[in-house]
Design goal:
This protein is α/β, with parallel strands linked by helices and 193 residues long. 42% of the residues lie in helices and 23% in strands. Strands 2-7-1-8-9 form a five-stranded parallel sheet, sandwiched between helices. It has a four-stranded mixed sheet with strand order 4-3-6-5.
Length: 193
């Protein structure tokens, strides 16, 4: 079975992860695409549930073997990517794939899958609010925080390249709007499944 792909992208701190978790509870026919990464596990993260945590050597080997449908060096020396086997695993279960992915990765997936994918950019109220959210997390060292802020400023400029811009000015409203977008996209029958 070939299912559909629903891509949520945004700068770090925009709320995409919260919205994706809400949609997973709302739509039983969605399954989360677990990304592979070379970064260290944080806090309560679980390998094979939050991410596939792999070494840089293993990641580079998988790139060479063309096992990724997309990958990016998101931060210097830190890779993230979507394994082809992950999408196939979800489709084999008869479900559609939902992504919580960085902006460049999201655009790459959209280019690759075209009308089979819905690419949604989650827009925060402003860069200033985003900086407050990132700082409030307290999970990053100052130099990493500065890197995230620079990246976020750049990523905000890509919003108009997505199918839809979902404004996350108020989380409950954004979640309801996301539900409607996903429901409409999944109900379209012009794509062969």
């Amino acid at each position: 079975m070939k299912g559909k792909l629903i891509i949520f992208s945004a700068p770090s701190g925009a709320g995409k992860t919260t919205i994706v978790h809400h949609l997973l509870k709302t739509f039983p026919n969605l399954s989360f695409s677990i990304s592979a990464t070379t970064r260290e596990q944080r806090g309560e993260e679980v390998h094979g549930q939050d991410y596939y945590f792999i070494s840089q050597e293993s990641f580079l080997h998988k790139i060479a073997q063309k096992e990724f449908v997309e990958f990016e060096e998101v931060y210097n020396g830190t890779f993230y990517g979507t394994l082809r086997s992950e999408i196939e695993r979800i489709w084999a279960q008869g479900k559609h794939v939902i992504f919580d992915i960085d902006v460049e990765g999201g655009l790459h997936l959209k280019r690759k899958y075209g009308e089979q994918a819905l690419a949604i950019f989650v827009q925060p109220p402003s860069l200033e609010v985003l900086i407050e959210r990132l700082t409030g997390r307290g999970t990053d060292l100052p130099e990493k925080l500065a890197e995230r802020i620079r990246k976020a400023d750049k990523e905000l400029k890509y919003a108009d390249k997505f199918d839809v811009i979902l404004k996350n000015f108020e989380l409950e409203t954004a979640c309801k709007e996301a539900e409607q977008l996903v429901s409409d996209f999944l109900s379209k029958t012009d794509i062969l499944l």
